[in-house]
User: What shape does this take?
Amino acid sequence: MSEPVVISSGELTATISPIGAELVSLRDAGAREYMSDGDPRWWSGRAPVLFPVVGALNGDRYRLDGKEYSIGKHGFARRSMFTLEEHDPCERVRFVLSDSEATRAVFPFAFRLELFHSIRGATLMTTATVSNTGDAPLPFSFGFHPAFAWPLPGGAAKEHHRIVFELDEPQAIRRIDKAGQMLSESFPTPVTGDTLAPDASLFEADALIWDAIHSRACSFGAPGGASLAVEWNNCPMLGIWQIPGAPFLCIEPWQGLADPQGFEGDFRQKPGVIVLEPGTYRSFTLGITVSPPETAP
Assistant: This one.
């Protein structure tokens, strides 16, 4: 199946593509859109999943047991065709990607990656489960990359939007260089207490990156307009990103980071990589709750 599938609660409708099992649209009962439109003039993504790497590798290559392999930025899952395993239009859809000859050529491991999207009321929950179906330990990273409309529906000005974390986030942030690799130094946080005022100028040096975020939830919105409550689990890192001036803002929970500058170690030693023993699995969740604007624009 190559056509997108739809699930809906009446309050919320989600459209998911089998390519990458990617959320491509999220609309409320008034048909207002909360995701990026994927305009390729800016960035064609909407909410790709990142597997088996997050970010860029040094030279797009990694080393494993003395051999080199090539994987592009954010891995191959986001461009892979998933198999539809379950679809209830009123509630849920399940897509699965398993290892194949093509994946094993660049990532020599057996795995099953399941993306389960479900809607209840005004909340979309996405659970990603990585299972080790082989007989050797499985090293990997995983991340979510949702791009939300900015401004959100409702008529509030872009500059009035705020991200409010569930906890204060006073720690320094990290940045990447022009090749997408992690810089060694840290930078002062743009967060005041628990609040970030996003502005295009913040992203001229690419993403804001927290390599140890305390919060596991935040809100995004502006007075008088719509808002989103975003929550995540098992993702201890976070990126916030846009192309300066673009009509979207990405809030990205991760288990994994780009390579440090010049990293040439074994893939298992890469920051943020976790290892699953045979027969085990790890799940990651992302919840998005929509609060429509009080009055239609």
Summary: The mean pLDDT is 96. The first strand starts at residue 5 and ends at 8. The domain at 5-291 is CATH 2.70.98.10 (Beta-galactosidase; Chain A, domain 5).
